[in-house]
Amino acid sequence: MTTLTEKTPFVPDPDAPVVTSTKGLLKTPIVFGVVTVLVALLLAFKSREGDTTFRIAADTDLFELPEITVPSTPSLATVIVLLAVCTAASTLLASRNRRTPLWLVAVFAVLAVVGFLAWAAAGEAVPMVGLLSGSIALAVPLVFGALGGVLGERAGVVNIAIDGQLLFGAFAAAMFGTIVGSPWGGLVAAMCAGALVALVLAFFAINYFVDQVIVGVVLNVLVIGLTSFLFGQVMTENPTGLNDPPHFSRIPIPLLGEIPIIGPVLFRQTILVYIMYVGVGLVAWALYRTKWGLRVRAVGEHPKAADTVGIKVNRTRYTTLIIAGLIAGIGGATYTLVSVPQFGEEMTGGAGYIALAAVIFGRWDPIRATLAALLFGFATNLSGVLSVIGSPVPSQFMLMLPYVVTIIAVAGLVGHSRAPAADGVPYRKG
Amino acid sequence: MNDETPQTPETPGGGGSAPEPGPSLEKAPSGPWPSVPQDGSPEPEPESSGGGAGAGSAPASGGDTPPEPSSRWREVFREIATGSLLVSVLSVFLAVVVGSLMILLTDETVRESAGYIGARPSDFFYAVRDAVVDAYTALFRGSIYNTNVEGFDRRIRPLTETLKYSGPLILAGLGVGLAFRAGLFNIGGRGQMLLAGAAAGWVAVTVDLPLVLHLPLAVLAGAVAGALWAGLAGFLKARTGAHEVIVTIMLNYVGFYLVFYALSRQGLLQAPGSGNPKSEAMPESAKLPKLLGEDFNLHAGFVLALVAVAFVWWLLNKSALGFRFRAVGENPEAARASGIHVGRTYTTVMLIAGALVGLAGVNQVLGTATSGVTVDLDAGIGFDAITVALLGRSRPVGILAAGLLFGALKAGGFSMAAAEGIPVEIVLVIQSLIVLFIAAPPLVRAIFRLPKGATA
Fold first, then answer.
1. From B202's CA, which of A81, A256, B66, B311 has a CA 20 to 30 Å away?
2. Pick from B187, B253, B431: which is nearest to A403 by CB?
3. Measuring CA to CA, which residue among A179, A169, A223 is closest to residue A334?
4. What number of other Cβ atoms are within 10 A of residue B171's Cβ?
5. Residue A9, phi then psi, degrees to nearest 5
6. ∠ at Cα B95 (B94, B98), nearest 5°?
């Protein structure tokens, strides 16, 4: 059947060591090698003259940091050497049957990005603060959507309807935010809207055993139809009364906000971003450290066993899905209460599908999924920034980048990741 | 960044008639219904699973006591009531009812007259009737037969428009449905259509050949491009375990920007001397011929769709390859244990599925919108195809019927928007509700208080 889960039939024993074959181990070195060659090709085909400036100061900083200026071509050459070293290290580890540690992957990624920036922005200045804070802003709905997705799937319900939850949340936030006249009213409405979509998903998936992928896809279409219909029929007739929500303003946090780089990137944001920080921690804590989280995971891994010890499987799935819907709804609110202060048809642009990719990319873990969502935000914002300062790469290829990175990551780095065992499988008692 | 939405609105509405909200709209008693195998999931058994048992049991019990006529009728009724066809029809009906409610809730006359319903209730009921009847009449006139114009050929024109819209929906629906049968979820219709359309358009514009060679070559190029784009997802799934849902979604975006790039570069696909991201118009020798003369838009793409339906039916039901597809879709473990190469099957089924979806893109470029390749040539069909495949239960004949229905909704939705000012998105709502109801037969049975399914 068409569940969203990738089961791993090759590993008969779930307690078997994580590493079962050298083939899986070699993926990371191969990806490293491919990326290194690609970066080297940049140098080979189009060597660029001039210096690249990384502008890391903001005028709100406590003390001023100097701009960092590096010569473009030599920096890129250095980076390529370092990338090659990382690749060699990863290959060496794989030959000794050991995994490439996560920090090495992170170092590799940062190096590759810096090298690319040094090359692409030769003769220009890269506004690092704008680049990073914009990435966070773009990632907010993705993070909330991914958190909702992680919760649902951990409880055993595949949630493709994240996009529907975001879009309906955005719609409700715009409409009720305008009517109530407060962004908080809009936020509550958005959460309810997300939960409503989750409720419909739960109703069909849990009560009627309808394939969860199907319900999810159909719900997305339904929400697009519903919101576009109401937008055309009701909202456009009375835009000031129904589609003019007040929006959240930036709240700089007193001391933290004045730290160079970190301050303006992380602590000069809207309240929704701060809710996101707390939310990620809260979800991770609740999932791994509370009795409730244990139940959720039990229901997602082995519902029968959970049922045997007295956990109400379907009730747990219902409540988890609704909580997930509330969270995804907050993500939807960011569209109309922060970015653009009004609703537009299909304004999420399929972000829910990206959030879904982040869930799988992040291996169904709230922290990793958040990082994946942030990566998407960064890649998207990077293409935007580079097209503004003018890059030698055609803009379409820059825009393509996040999606290509995802494919490479899903195929190369994640591979046969293991979903919760009962993900997508309806529970029939008896 | 938001120029890129994977879902474009299209159109449909309900069936031809204008049903009033029926009396049987009570809330369904929810509860654990016994599982029914036909709940929307593609399964390989033939359609006949609806009834056999009931028909067989009646004569068996009639040894010495001949069955009473009334009980026989009950059997017949039971068979009809539990069959999946009735559920499908009722699902469409329910969706149309909900669509009517939405039209009513947002109709201005209805809302105004509801304000003084106590004083003059007749106003309210007239307004309700007018709003619903007008909407569905416009839908019918736009999709089947237009009584507002003179002459049979002009009156029947909407039907040919319906067929024109159905062609690509059927083709892409077959592609999605075929992948479904092998257990794969192909959300990449948009990317596959774009790549296929661009490839077909490129062959059409750059190669100079007579019609008999040019058209087949262009069609083939499109099918191959679609096949490769989808096959990539199947290959990655087979080799690395990358989830096909993620990969096909990502390939949609990659394909979009790739085609966008080709369309904005001179020497690639952009029309010479133009600054717009659009190719030259298709030459006559590469266009799909019009079926009913120049007055009608219906072109040979519909014939292509019918041929594809026959092909997929043969593939799934008569060929060894199709058997392997279904075996893998039913249970990959069992298929592997019985010696089927699951990975290779994934790649193969995605190649064929991509070719079918690609033909839908070809249909658009060489048939429907021949003024040139653009980045929105898919017109939302790549995503509609998912609902078409679901409604058709991933069976070729079912997809044919679903494609015709959605084609009619699409054609009618535009005329409903033009005549009554109802946003075409109502059609999206009706479409998705149909699929939702059809996927949950116990819910529909409960709403209409029908007997439980034959398997109960």
1. B311
2. B253
3. A169
4. 34
5. -70, -15
6. 90
Residues of B in contact with A315 (CB under 8 A): none
- Tell me the angle at which helices A212-233 and A183-202 cross, rounded to the nearest 10 degrees: 140
A8 reaches B (C-beta below 8 A): yes
Counted domains in chain A: 1
User: Tens digit of pLDDT per residue, chain B (456 long)?
Assistant: 344 434 433 333 333 333 333 333 333 333 333 333 333 344 443 333 333 333 333 344 434 444 455 666 666 666 555 567 788 888 888 998 998 888 888 777 887 787 787 788 888 888 888 888 888 888 888 888 888 888 888 888 889 999 999 999 999 999 999 999 999 989 889 999 999 999 999 999 988 888 889 999 999 999 999 999 999 999 999 988 888 888 898 899 999 999 999 998 888 888 888 888 888 888 888 888 888 888 888 999 999 999 999 999 999 999 999 999 999 998 889 999 999 999 999 999 999 999 999 999 999 999 988 888 998 888 889 888 988 998 888 899 999 999 999 999 989 988 888 888 888 888 889 988 988 888 888 888 888 887 765 443
Any B CB within 8 A of A185 CB: no
Residue of B110, B259, B425 to mutate for A, most A C-beta atoms under 10 A: B425
- Is the CB of B5 less than 8 angstroms away from the CB of A404? no
- Across the interface, do B246 and A360 touch by the CB < 8 Å criterion? yes
Domain contains A37: no
Task: Look at B4 and A349 and tell me if their CB atoms are within 8 Å.
Answer: yes
Whether residue A365 lies inside any domain: the answer is yes
B202 and A CB contact within 8 Å: no
Q: Do B2 and A349 touch (CB under 8 A)?
A: yes
Could you tell me if B24 lies within 8 Å of chain A, comparing CB atoms?
Answer: no
Partners of residue A8 in chain B, C-beta under 8 Å = 241
Nearest by CB: A226 against B1, B245, B429: B429
How many inter-chain contacts (A to B, CB under 8 Å) are there?
191
Q: Do A232 and B423 touch (CB under 8 A)?
A: yes
ipTM of the complex in this document? 0.79
Per-residue HEC secondary structure of chain B comes to CCCCCCCCCCCCCCCCCCCCCCCCCCCCCCCCCCCCCCCCCCCCCCHHHHCHHHHHHHHHHCCCCCCCHHHHHHHHHHHHHHCHHHHHHHHHHHHHHHHHHHHHHHCHHHHHHHHCCCCCHHHHHHHHHHHHHHHHHHHHHHHCCCCCCCCHHHHCHHHHHHHHHHHHHHHHHHHHHHHHHCCCCCCCHHHHHHHHHHHHHHHHHHCCCCHHHHHHHHHHHHHHHHHHHHHHHHHHHHHHCCCHHHHHHHHHHHHHHHHHHHHCCCCCCCCCCCCCCCCCCCCHHHCCCECCCCCCCCECHHHHHHHHHHHHHHHHHHCHHHHHHHHHHHCHHHHHHCCCCHHHHHHHHHHHHHHHHHHHHHHHHHHHCCCCCCCCCCCCHHHHHHHHHHHCCCCHHHHHHHHHHHHHHHHHHHHHHHHHCCCCHHHHHHHHHHHHHHHCHHHHHHHHCCCCCCCC
Chain B environment of A347 (Cβ under 8 Å): 2
What residue segments make up the domains of chain B, in order of their start? 17-41+49-143+407-456, 159-394
B337 — contact with chain A (CB < 8 Å)? no
Q: Does A159 map to a domain?
A: yes
Q: Which two tokens stand for residue B339?
A: 């010696």
- What part of B 52-111 touches A (C-beta under 8 Å)? 102, 106
Check CB contact under 8 Å for A349 and B41.
no
Contact A228 B9 (CB under 8 A): yes
In terms of residue numbers, what domain contains A362?
134-374
